């Protein structure tokens, strides 16, 4: 017997973060802020850790956090959600997405994935026996090819997986794109798994519209959020799923066997965080937007072809104008050893036939780190 699993390879984030450590490079690869999120949120977690209880919380999550998630759905999107039957807490959005795929995809089901796609989707879809069907958003504008989207829907389509705002593209799907996705889901009786972990990281006045809020989608969509992104606490791994009971029930069954539950003190702290005032949520985006601008300006000055970024904490660049030899993967490796800066090759986010001239930089770092990275790149180029 062969103990080597096919399709489960080392992720690009692990590879590049390891390289960053080995070479003492500035890590603008893996997406994590270098300053921890709000102190009041961390303090609630610390106090709850000391005071307890620290035993298994309820499988579906602490009622306090489930209520806070339902409140946030109403506050930000006007969605009417019953916390008791429509919200579940998970150990990170990664677990939530895995639970959703395990619950909704059966062998032979077609699953529409939009490239460039976040790295955890494909291995799990394949492990469930689902058949990936690819659609793309295309640089430099990252617009969705609506004709290709329409062709992707067949009588075997079970699920579309939508990441909005989108990693690594930094794209926020337009109202028209979302409306068309919704129409096609309704027409073909397809479920949507919506990875909306970057819902609060939006720039230049962009607005997040959950696919769930489009006509006909309330009952066929599950929406996934992450405290890691919303509170700049990526190590906490607290996610939440919102969806109609018919969908959430099987997803909760999967959650029972994946992690069963999630640390109680962190859940309590995230409940507190989701009730923070608008000033918090606005400043989160405003601070990130300034960092995006700092990095985008610097990279443009160095000759990178900087692509638009409307949300997330990722900036993608075309490296063709630099005139360097090699593909994105080679250039990223050289950048680590020669410049001391880590970026992620965007080809890692494709299933096949990837473009090889784009790289992704993460900008949720202190300004002096971004400036130092730009200086290093300037010296290198
Ligand atoms: N989806 C996307 C698009 C992401 O970028 C991330 C970042 N890690 C996740 C899901 C996972 O979130 P979490 O850390 O809460 O598992
Ligand atoms: N979401 C992060 C990114 O895209 C990485 C998370 C991880 O390392 N799995 O960089």
From TrEMBL:
The keyword tRNA processing does not apply. InterPro entries: Aminotransferase_I/II_large (IPR004839), Kynurenine-oxoglutarate_AT (IPR051326), PyrdxlP-dep_Trfase (IPR015424), PyrdxlP-dep_Trfase_major (IPR015421), PyrdxlP-dep_Trfase_small (IPR015422). Keywords: Aminotransferase, Pyridoxal phosphate, Transferase. GO terms for cellular component: cytoplasm. Its cofactor is pyridoxal 5'-phosphate. It comes from the Bacteria. CDD domains: AAT_like. The keyword Metal-binding does not apply. One of its GO terms (molecular function) is kynurenine-oxoglutarate transaminase activity. Residues 26-377 form the Aminotransferase class I/classII large domain. NCBIfam families: PRK08912.1. Belongs to the class-I pyridoxal-phosphate-dependent aminotransferase family. This is Aminotransferase. It comes from Pannonibacter tanglangensis.
